[in-house]
Write a structure and sequence with these properties.
Blueprint: H1 2-18, H2 21-40, H3 42-47, E1 53-62, E2 68-77, E3 80-84, E4 93-94, E5 99-102, E6 104-109, E7 114-115, E8 121-122, H4 129-144, E9 147-152, H5 158-166, E10 174-177, E11 182-183, H6 192-205, E12 209-213, H7 227-240, E13 243-248, H8 252-258, E14 263-266, H9 272-281, E15 284-286, H10 291-298, H11 300-303, H12 322-334, H13 357-364, H14 370-375, H15 379-384, E16 402-405, E17 419-424, E18 427-431
Parallel strand pairs: 1-4, 6-9, 9-10, 11-12, 12-13, 13-14, 14-15
Antiparallel strand pairs: 1-2, 2-3, 5-16, 7-8, 16-17, 17-18
Helix pairs in contact: 1-2, 6-7
The chain binds zinc ion.
Length: 434
Amino acid sequence: MQTLWQDLCYGVCRLVKQREGVFGQFMKTLSAILLLWSVCTLPQRISAQTPARTVIAANVVLDGKGGVLRNTRIVIEGGRIVAPDPKAGPVNYDLRGLTVMPGWIDAHVHITWSFGKDGKNASFGTESPETAYAAAANAWATLRAGFTTVQSVGSPLDLPLREAIRQGVLPGPRLLTAVEALVGRGEASGTPEEIRVFIRKQKAAGADVIKIMASGGIRQGEKTLSQEQLNAACGEANKLGLRTLVHAYRDAVPAALQAGCTQIEHGIGATDEVLKSLAEKGVYFDPQTGGVILNYLENKERFVGTLGFPATLEGFAPMSELPPLAHDIVRRALQVPGLKIVFGSDALAGMHGHNAEEFIQRVRIGGMAPMAALVSAQSLGAEALRMSDQIGAIAPGLQADIIALDGDPLKDITAVRRVVFVMKGGVVYRHDAR
Ligand SMILES: [Zn+2]
């Protein structure tokens, strides 16, 4: 296309040089129009490379809701799934021998956090050209790992990244963002009215969700927002139709429940009674099995002395006591009938592209059934995002977010590490040679 356009430009320029007068003026105008057309339609012409109709052949398809389809073909048109149709053809992607399923949804990531050029953790308030490029690289790594939708819980880099991905300028998962989290600081967090103003400000800025930090440290940290403040935050979000993700431990969990918040993150120290109440009220729960803590320990030289982390390496020692607490909450949560446990990896610097490790840990440590673990990042994850009509299943009308694994995750959950095919919205981003 580029060569053709260069030839055309060259030809037009020569003609303009040769001819004077009205014809020359006409050719100049035509040339300008062609140039404008070429620039303006470039994105459409690139995306037009996506075929209007695509057919995937598969012999095992997990439908994202717990069902399995066998020996079928998935028809995709305009980026959406038309229907499974065993007779459809011609086949564009033959994924027989792989396990095909809806792309995964990660409800809790920090997609813009990375290790900076000095090798140290670059997260809160360290935005720079380097961290912006690193965020783009994180998005690509996450998408290649099979995550076609992620929810980033707040960073100044989230919005531009979300828009770049939405416009197809950068490859990455469909990104939802909290824009700026409400960080509980006791009285300093503001009056209930000030908190309501803060929530409205996030909505106006384009937030898809509200993130609230309602607890201090993992082990003993107190509640950082009063009941009145939490009521204001989640009450205002509910009024605006926004979901709320609340970082909460121990007594902050029932407080968030009482405030009408819609999803609890982490939840260490929540009692069985509180977990039952979450199930009764239909509040989503997103505990992690400790991967984030192991990542801190493995990379302590990179985290030490950065904002929010111990100043010395010795300061990391108490962290090794935390994984059992994380295992405990996941194990107990899985015993609660009807509790809606969604998938959230808490991926931050060092973890992007390895989000799927949380599946393995939930199955191995928590004893979660592999199918339930996958569904928590598919139809259940979509429901928690209020996007069931868009993503999370292989069903007519939904976005063609389709991945394939080399192996059977129902028999060996480590197959989640072997993503070999990724399609998002009908566009293929990964198709490894076989
Ligand atoms: Zn987090």
